[in-house]
Hints:
By secondary structure, the protein is an alpha/beta fold. Helices cover 39% and strands 18% of the residues.
Amino acid sequence: xxxxxxxxxxxxxxxxxxxxxxxxxxxxxIMEVCGGQTHxxxxxGLLDILPPEITIVHGPGCPVCVTPQSLINQAxxxxxxxxxxxxxxxxxxxxxxxxxxxxxxxxxxADVRILYSPLEAVEIAKKxxxxxxxxxxxxxxxTAPANALSVLHAYRAGLKNYSILTAHVLVPPAIRAxxxxxxxxxxxxxxxxxxxxxxGNSEYYPIAEEYKIPLVVTGFEPVDLMxxxxxxxxxxxxxxFEVINQYSRVVKEEGNPEARAVINKVFExxxxxxRGIGVIPRSGYALREEFALYDAEKKFxxxxxxxxxxxxxxxxxxxxGLKKPKDCPHFNKTCTPLNPLGAPMVSTExxxxxxxxxxxxxx
Length: 363
C-alpha cells in the first residue's frame, strides 16, 4: 500500500472482519493503549461491527488524561503566582485543576500561550530575557525527544530563564500496572505505534513472556486496527503470546536511535504519578541532575503533591480498562467537552471525548 486512503479501504476492513469472525471461538478482551487508536476505533465505527465475543477496552494512552491534577495546579501557580510565560500544547489548557484550569488562569490575565513545539518556547525565552519561560512538557515517549532538544538548545544558548514542567510517562510500565491489577480482564494489547516509532519493540518482549499476553504494535487507520485485532485474536485462539509489528511501515525493531540518544542524554527514568491511577514505579522521565537548572519544579520549589479532587469522575477506571465512558453517570450530563469533570473529556485523544463526538450514543 502506498497511500493513506488504502488504509481506510472499507473492503479491506471487512475482509479482516470476516477473518476475525472465522477464527474467534471464545470471548476476549483487548485493550488499545494509545488515545489516537481509541479515537479512530470510535470515529470509524469499528467497535460496532466486531463480533460479540470481542470486547475492546481503552487504556491510559492519552498523556493529557493521565497528567495528575497536582501538575495542573503547579502550572496554574506558575502562571498566576510566579507570573512566568507558561507555554503548553492546546489540549492542556482546559484540563481541570483543583481550583481552575490554565484557560481560566489565562482569562484572569496570566500569560499562557499555546504552542506547537517546545522549541518555540526556547525562542520566546531568547526574546524575553527578563521573563521566566516554562514549557509544560506533557507526553509519552513520542514527544520526549522534542522536549529534550528544547533543554539542550537552551543549555547551549546559555539561557537561564527557560525550564520545563515535566509530565512525561512511559507505556511499558503502564501495561505492567494494568496486568498487575487483580481486577484486570485484558487478554491482549494493541501497542502504541507512535511510541514504538521512537523506542522500538524490545521493551515488549519480556512483558509478553511474563504475562503470557500477545502485544501487536499497531497503527491508527481502520485497516491497521482491524489487522492488529486479527493478529491479536489469532494468537489468543492459538495460545500464543508474541510481539508482532503490524505497523512495520513506520516502526523499526530498534526504533529511532538518534531520538533515544537525545532522551537518554537529558532524562532519566523516575517514578510518576498518573491521574486516576496513582504512582507507577519507574514509569516516567525526570531531568537529569546536570540539567536541574531547566527543571521548573526545582527552580520554583514545588515539593508537595496536592490531593486530587473527588468529583465523581471515573477516569481511573476507564484508563485501566475496567469501565467505559458510557458507564459514568456524569457522561453527557454534568460532564461534557464544554464543562469537563475529567481530562478524558478534554483531550482529542481522550476516550470520553471520542465517545461524545463519534459514538452515536449522545442523548
